[in-house]
Amino acid sequence: MEFCDHALTQLEGPLRKPRHALQTLQNTIVRCRLCPRLVEWRERVACEKVRRFRAQTYWGRPIPAFGDPEASLVLIGLAPAAHGGNRTGRMFTGDRSGDWLYEALYSFGFANQKTSRERNDGLLLSGCWITAAVRCAPPANRPLPGELAACSRYLRTEISLLPKAVVFVALGRIAFTAFLKAWAGTSRTPPGFESAFGHDRQFCLPDDRWLISSYHPSQQNTLTGRLTRPMFHRVFRRARGLLGS
Fold first, then answer.
1. pTM
2. What is the pLDDT of residues 208-236, one digit of tens each?
3. Which of 141, 139, 222, 128 is nearest to 174 (CA)?
4. Which of 65, 69, 104, 185 is packed most tightly, with the most Cβ within 10 A?
5. pLDDT digits over 15-29, tens only?
């Protein structure tokens, strides 16, 4: 706890260059061991693996954020999947949620390719940054309140280091709530619409910024038809419109 708090204090000091500070923050996140339950789970999954990925080396650590430090669009997910990000070491990479997300990002000019399979597959984001409410894979994809609170410090610092961010897209209710708490912690006025989550809803933030809420592209939503591709793509069409491009 003391190491992380000291590292974040250094990042939040005056005259820090955002790009350098963002990289330093990601290095701090990758070494984090604040939540014993998450540490035990992510490392056990990385050792036991599943049959289809038996020959692969799992990442098994907290997942750093990914994208363009000059981003105008910031996406906030829930947490890495046990055999997705926890395996590949990159946000929304190697699972079905990522298939939906990167296809949408490519369609609206935020990514150079439709797929994200592994860290070194050539994927680049343009004007987009991807982060999460929790950086370690949680059991049953359900982080505990204390784990969300522990990771909130990272999201709060990240927001402060993305000065060109104009539109924030929260993927799922947990990410939506986590973003609002992190936003309030940046010393700016809290928006006060914590109960207003819904798909493709738009909220005005202070400083001429915007928050869009979206259902998460998990299979729980996509296979049941709760979230369709046209519904999901509308979110990014709205984001493009708000960015004026």
1. 0.91
2. 999 999 999 999 999 999 999 999 999 99
3. 141
4. 65
5. 456 789 999 999 999
